[in-house]
Amino acid sequence: MKKVINNPSDVVEETIEGFLAAYNHSFRKVENVNGITRRNLKDKVGVVIGGGSGHEPLFMGFAGDGLADGVTIGNVFAAPSPNNVQSVAQAVDSGKGVLFVYGNYMGDILNFDMAAELLEMEGIESRTVLVRDDVASAPMERYEDRRGIAGDVFVFKIAGGAAEQGLDLESVAKVTQKASDQTFSIGVALNPGTMPDSGESTFTLADDEIEFGMGIHGEPGVERTKMMTADELTERLMERLLDESKIDSGEEVSVLVNGLGSTTLMELFIVNRKVAQILEDKSITIHDMDVNSYCTTQEMGGLSITLLKLDSELKELYDAPANSPYYKK
Amino acid sequence: MQTDALIINLNATQVKEMFLYVGEKVRENKPLLTKIDSAIGDGDHGIGMSIGFTKAEENLKEKEFTTINEVIKTVGMSMMTSMGGASGVIFGTMFIGGVKGLEPHEKLNLPILAEIFEKSLEAIKVRGKASLGDKTMIDAFEPAVERLKQCSDNNKSLLEGLKNAEEGADKGVELSKEYIAKFGRAKSLGERAIGHQDAGATSVWIIFKSMREWVEGLSKHA
Question: Which residues cross the membrane (chain A) (predicted)?
Fold first, then answer.
């Protein structure tokens, strides 16, 4: 796979440099680590998001007004180190504490938890909300094992909105946890992405095959099958998603159809068309639909569908203004 | 002519040289670790370990050390701060965990090495919430530490201790093939992970093997 990079060991730093070259007016680098913060930090709970790099525009693209205040990123597909997380948290803390929001992966938990301990010793309070939206990554009985994928975006949105309202750390964490509990996703993989360092594919899949439920790092899914039409594929995804989420007629959702990297917007719209039809058929109210490639894995092909089940509190926070280079409300 | 038994301790500079050699060997094994990790993990273990030991080399070469504590702490902090991922915390703790709170030593001998790694093992278990048989680096580290302790209790030489630890780690790597993974991507494979060795355990074996090689080289040239 051809990749437009320089030295593979410089990809993360050079990505940040390029991002800041474009958005220098709004963000600044956190010294000595791979992290950024907003320039106009407010006197409120700081929201810090992050994870491994390679999933652009996650995570840097989601820092801004009504979203995250700081972003900590690790090496490609690897969690940021404890000192990286700690430095970003220190940079955004206004004295009202820091909320960490990130996907449920072992590496991220180890590093963020260690950072939280270091911060506690300095008197900076923190809370953590894990995103576990991928319903195919583990059955409900093992909810603790479910991984975070594109649903990150909805949970970041709610966390940012709540912090912007001036709520205290406990309250921001509580409503963000609710958002995480009400966010459900499922994906399908068509082609692997490649690691910038080694050029290796993240998984192998025959040309005419797809895999339902495959994770964004190539974690095994629930079913490998022959390629099918957009409508068939969307029906399969939606059936499982509605079944797992227990979202039923009369309820209200926001939808994200997320491309994994190389799947075109044309294809994503075709999928979204079917998602809308299915939800309408089931009398599930669509509050909002977003069709974008927010959570990618390099040039991985495929998509995920995310539903955020809304109540009045979540809806208000969902609709609150937000502005970042890759997300606006 | 000196015998193995006479190499009973290493000064801080020697410990530094030993870990520079370990780093070189770990980096040489990046393709092997990548291959092993790609089979059941996310394929980045070799890259991560290589990043960690490259940073360790950079930081070790920058300074002269008087205590072995500082050398080992430097190795651990380099890994912890540069690698990220689960491996960064776990392998960082493999070094930092053991010297945390340890009184300063100018020399490293087998009893001290056994004490350090025993504390590290405990710290890793607390941090990672894993135990023997979970298909993690502990599968190699715990038997290696056991062997270090046994040899230390029997007044063996540093080299003898490391030879035994390497053997224990090697056996642990073999046994890890039979385990179902409790952590990481391999966990979702269930029984499909059986037959594959754990990449982290393999790194532990490479670390002990190269420590042994370095001390053996010292014995031969002494």
Answer: none
Flag if B189 and A220 touch (Cβ within 8 Å): yes
Residues of B with CB under 8 A from a CB of A: 34, 38, 42-44, 47-48, 51, 80-90, 127-128, 183-185, 187-189, 192
Peptide bond preceding B117: is omega within 30 degrees of 0, i.e. cis?
no
Bridge partners (DSSP) listed for residue A103: A131
Between B51 and B41, the higher pLDDT residue: B51
Q: What is the ipTM of this complex?
A: 0.87
Q: Which of B5-9, B84-88, B90-94 has the lowest mean pLDDT?
A: B5-9
Q: Does A114 touch chain B (CB under 8 A)?
A: yes
Q: Please give the angle made by the CA atoms of A296, A142 and A151, to the nearest 5 degrees.
A: 25
Q: Min CA distance, A279 vs chain B (Å)?
A: 31
CB–CB contact A197 B189 (8 Å): no
* A168-172, B36-40, B140-144, B167-171: the lowest-pLDDT one: B36-40
For chain B, percent of residues with pLDDT exceeding 90: 84
Q: Provide the pLDDT confidence category of residue B6 given band limits of 50, 70 and 90.
A: low
The fold adopted by the segment(s) A183-317 is Hypothetical Protein Tm841; Chain: A;domain 3 (3.30.1180)
| Chain B residues close to A192, C-beta within 8 Å | none
Q: What is the CATH number of domain A8-181?
A: 3.40.50.10440
Question: Mutation test of the interface with chain B: which of A111, A134, A202, A216, choosing the one with the most B Cβ atoms within 10 A?
Answer: A111
pLDDT above 70: residue B4: no
Tell which of A198, A297, A298 to mutate to test the B interface (max B CBs under 10 Å): A198
User: Interior CA angle at B26 toward B24 and B30, to 5°?
Assistant: 115
Residue B44 lies in a domain: yes
Cα B147 to Cα B160: distance, rounded to the nearest angstrom: 10
Specify the number of domains making up chain B.
1
Give B-chain residues touching A114 at CB under 8 angstroms.
Answer: 89, 127
